[in-house]
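Exam prep: given the inputs below (a chain plus Broken Fe4S4 cluster), describe the expected output before reading on.
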Amino acid sequence: MGNEKHDKESVKGINIADVTICEATAQMLKKAEKDGVETAFHRADSMKACPIGADSACCKHCAMGPCRLSSKDPYGKVGVCGATIDTIQARNFSRMVASGAAAHTDHGMSMLDLFREVVNDEIEDYKIKDPMKLEQVAAELGIEVQGRSVKDIAIDLYHELERTYVQIEGEIPFVKRVPEKTLETWRKHGIVPRGAMREIMELMHRTHMGVDQHYENLTNQCSRTALADGWGGSMVATEISDILFGTPTPIKADVNMGCLDEKQVNIIIHGHEPNLFESMIASVNDPELIKEAKDAGAEGINLLGMCCSGAEVLSRHGIPHAGNFMSTEAVLVTGAVDAMGVDVQCIKQGLVKVAECYGTKVFTTNPRCRIEGAEHIAFEERYPRNCTDAIVRMGIIRYKHRDKPIEIPRIKNAGIHGFSHEYINYMLGGVFRGSYTPLNENIINGRIRGVAGVVGCTNPRVRQDWVHVELVKELIRNDVLVVQTGCSQIALAKAGLCTPEAAILAGNGLAEVCETVGMPPVLGLGSCVDNSRILIACSEMVKTGGLGHSIADLPVAGAAPEWMSEKAISIGQYFVASGVFTVFGVTFPIVENTKFHKLLFEGLEQLGLGKWGFTADPYQMAKMMIEHIDKKRKALGIDKTRERVLMDMAARQKLGMA
Ligand code: SF4
Ligand code: MSK
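Solution:
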């Protein structure tokens, strides 16, 4: 590449087929090695994970340590202060939850800040796009909506939702959505969140050296904090984004690197907050900027998303998506990216170095995230176009001076995205009788065995996308309807499973429902904060009736098969605390055969919550989830209907019809 920093000899080749099933990423990894460019895949190969850290068997919470305990003999010794393996693990796990919850709640708070300024007419670039959703959310929270102006309702909603973050005592507003019996269980265990700031602060305090040294007590606060994320910070982020930018409805859109266009100025936005993206959409459609791009010789400006804000605008507006977390460096290797704008979360520092090799610039935009070597163009909500227009202009300049060979993998996958829980309601129930009744009925009659949320990241410690895809295929084959968010949704979209035609891969019962409704067996709901849509869907299923009285009664399960971030741990813990069996892949940061492990994997369920599960194998994961779903079906007394369906299937197979 003519760049001394990237000496071809310095990049040790990896077996590309072992690290990804994404063909576009594989093609770019091959090119990266040829160009002498290193990626996270290469670094993961050369840097083995620390086994003690991977098991959370070490503590560096004070300067008497760091203390390392043994995973092989966890009770063989204690830390200098006397902390046991259970205390050390529970503290480390809790801090992951605190950090993950902080990320989501800070994102949600930014959305709420934006909402306040829009409502107060201090920002002109954004408006309330979905007043119906505003009214619906406000009414749910007990705010009077009849005969009131949008502005008055919005002001009241702002003040109500602010409690999610700053409230000192009481319960956060969205607990009004929690099924009564689930809420009763939370109250019994003292885990109803007060306000996110308080819960995160208390958890950080309790995990300080010499404070909470009982793993059970720590786990309680861990659940409370995680619930402040799921039913608080994340839910507010989702709802405010819908109110400001529109509630998603199904839309056809393309994913994968083939969405790049050599003849256009390619701009990628990668991160998590939708406002940067919304303004970028305005910028790339500005006739003046389009003219500037054309004057530079381009056919136009091509905007693409990556990671979660990409998944959000894919769902909301059908903006093409270039790839998930483990493709963010690979996409730069195409040489076709003229500018990459990032905001917060999951932005690898390594992007800057890869970008540099191909003459691409990475622009940070958020005051919370600066990266050494990246140019910072501040995104100010009151004048957002100053930032997004500048990024487009920088992209146009780069287009004009492209001097590196371009290679774009010719792979593009169409799919249907944008299944908000409101739309699932409408889709299954129809416009006049929108409800979850048909979903519940199909679960009760056994056509749909249960519902699984498959979400989360990709991780270079496992073969990119493979665990997601194999797990989901196995689930739908067994009549489990799959809902998805984040990077997992993109993995399945690339595998072609987000199309109604993919129903052919589903079991007979699920396929029949998909064909009747015209929906894919895999429903993409958006970004990681949009996991809150899954919580709401679970809640609606309970309230609709026939499937028990709490979320823990539902035949549902969750999985993050290739997780990597602390946000994923927070998400996992809020699903578990909400009553869902949640299985993680890759690795689980806890030593087996310890009391803390037993609590997470068995004890919490006995308290009326959900429980954790772990396996790195997708087939085993599917088996565990299906067994759990069947266990719940049995408890609900609906296992017989399912048996009948299975018999019908067997009978059909016997007749050579299936
Ligand atoms: Fe070691 Fe205890 Fe200090 Fe942790 S808090 S580093 S276990 S002495
Ligand atoms: S972006 S948290 S890698 S889903 Fe939300 Fe993807 Fe995981 Fe980041």
